[in-house]
Amino acid sequence: MKVIFLEDVPGTADAGEVKDVKNGFARNYLLPRQLAARATINELQRMNSIQKTAQKNRLKVTQDMTKVAEAMEGIQVSIEAKIGPTGRLFGSVTSRHIAEAINLETGRDLDHRNVLIGDSLHELGDYPISIRLYRDVVAHVSVSVIPEGGAEVEEKPSVEEDAAPETPEETPEEEVASEPEPTNEESEEK
């Protein structure tokens, strides 16, 4: 079905674009939510005004999100995680954990899909994280993964300490069982 998009639909089309989409997608999603309209002659004549309105809306949203990004820039967020004796995390810190921590810190409703971390965090430390707020608007925050409850990490023994041979402690002579010395009779028989 050929439709003209009335609003931006991320991943599909921008407002004012004419595209062929699957019939079910158009009938069940786009048309009921008024995100698109059938591409009739009347709608195609409106295309120019739809594009101008959408461009103004994008510019306004971009300006608003740029202000939000400037306010979020450089925020330091701490996330507590359970750790093992070696310092590795039990599980991992995901984009959901980071989004929740930023939501608590800033009071904004941030979707976890906007947190750009690539792969989950599996170790303690500080990590620079990018947050996509809108199209080309990105904020950079710092996330610190710290041990839960302030637990300290036991350091692993170094390789040199493990490789050192253990010397047996000398035992007192009394404890050492020695063979009884042969008596005169036994030594004469041999």
Would you kindly provide a written description of the structure presented here, covering whatever features stand out?
The protein has 190 residues and is of the alpha+beta class. The protein has helices at residues 23-30, 41-72, 95-106, 159-163, 184-189, and strands at 2-5, 18-20, 36-38, 76-81, 88-93, 115-116, 121-123, 125-134, 137-147. Strands 4-9-8-6 form a four-stranded mixed sheet. A hairpin with a 2-residue loop joins strand 8 and strand 9. Residues 153-165 have low confidence and may be disordered.
Q: Which strand order do you get reading across the main beta sheet?
A: 4-9-8-6
Overall structural domain count: 2
Structural class: alpha+beta
Percent strand: 25-35%
Give the CA-based shape.
elongated
What does the average pLDDT come to?
A: 81
List the secondary-structure elements in sequence, H or E. Answer: EEHEHEEHEEEEHH
Outline the low-pLDDT stretches: 153-165
Q: How does the major sheet shape up?
A: 4 strands, mixed
Name of the top-level CATH class of the largest domain: Alpha Beta
Portion of residues within helices = 25-40%
CATH architecture of the largest domain: Roll
Work out the helix count.
5
In CATH terms, what is the fold-level topology of the largest domain? Ribosomal Protein L9, domain 2
Distance between the termini: 113 Å
Rg value: 35 Å
CATH superfamily of the largest domain: Ribosomal protein L9, C-terminal domain
Give the number of DSSP strands. Answer: 9
